[in-house]
Amino acid sequence: MLLGGLRYLLPVIKAAHEQGYYVITCDYLPDNIAHKYSDEYVNVSIVDKEAVLRVAREKGIDGIMSFACDPGVIAASYVQNKMGLPSFGPFESVEILQNKDKFRAFLKENGFNVPQAKGYDNIEEAMSDSAWFPWPVIVKPTDSAGSKGCTRVDRIEDLRPALEEAMQHSISGHIIVEEFIEKQGCSSDTDSFSLDGKLTFVSFSAQRFDEVASNPYTPAAYSWPSTFTAEQEAYLTSEIQRLITLLGMKTSVFNIETRIDTHGKAFIMEVTPRGGGNRLCEMLRYATGVDMITAITRAMVGDPIKPVCQKPYNGHWAEIILHADQNGAFDHLEISKDLQAKIVEEDLWIKQGDKVEAFEGANNAIGTLVLEFATAEDLEQAITHQREWLKIVIK
Predict the structure, then answer these.
(1) pTM of the entire predicted model
(2) Domains and CATH numbers, the chain
């Protein structure tokens, strides 16, 4: 059983069918694209863990996960533990990872580098408590995904609108105000794999943002390798392993966000037991040959998996998240022939005349480009001067 219905599930459904598995997809939106490719669709809210458990028992499932769909991770873990199915780890640990407030507290209690942060369940409390805020801060829902509801705030005059925006995007009505960590180089958002609690494949990316987008904190591109040093990656790998061990986590793909601050201090920002959105596992399969999608699909029904081992990047890779700068109707995509890259895949999700919205969150993406570069210099030039070779024409 797969929770969610977005297109990021399509490679998982494909991998499951290649193993001969029967696939049930679930959410409350029957028109979502993944349901057209699964064997069965069930209309159930994936944030209602008891309802998902009831359906799982009725269907007699052998495994469940929420791949690239953050809201379903809690329900998937709950069902795993209640039904004795292969699991990411203890339900209580997954709850910690899935709640930004609890996660920050756990990191602090266990001696990890962690930004100052505090959670709130009402706006007035946050406003009255603002004396401690280490400006600038970032305001987020504790339980949303895709960067929805996230706002950097540099002064108290702009705090209330940010709190209101975060509250609107929180499922539980809980938000967090957190010290904004100014980064050195690029932050990383990419996927890794643990088998029985041991990290067997770890990756770090260069996460890129569009500074002129409606929401400049929504990832707009990724590249591999990262901008971290070997020493920084080694330290973060050790700390991620320590975290997984402390929480008793087992076998999972983990989407992990990390960053280095301007003083060289390394932070684990997010760890969640699911494949990341934006096709990160697929990109890593291109860049390294490591197939975490098939491995986790087999593991979640208890079948043996081929070893998922550390492998180097076979070149310089980038993924561009195609998006519009404004609301309107999509007309066409222009890619200059001067681009110094091999276009491995051009995946456009819309057609001419379709309505598009400005880039507020990951749900506003309109497609992806997979690019392979001959050199790191060619990659950096293309990423930092994207508007010189890529145009998304909106009318």
Answers:
(1) 0.93
(2) 2-85 (3.40.50.20), 116-179 (3.30.1490.20), 188-394 (3.30.470.20)
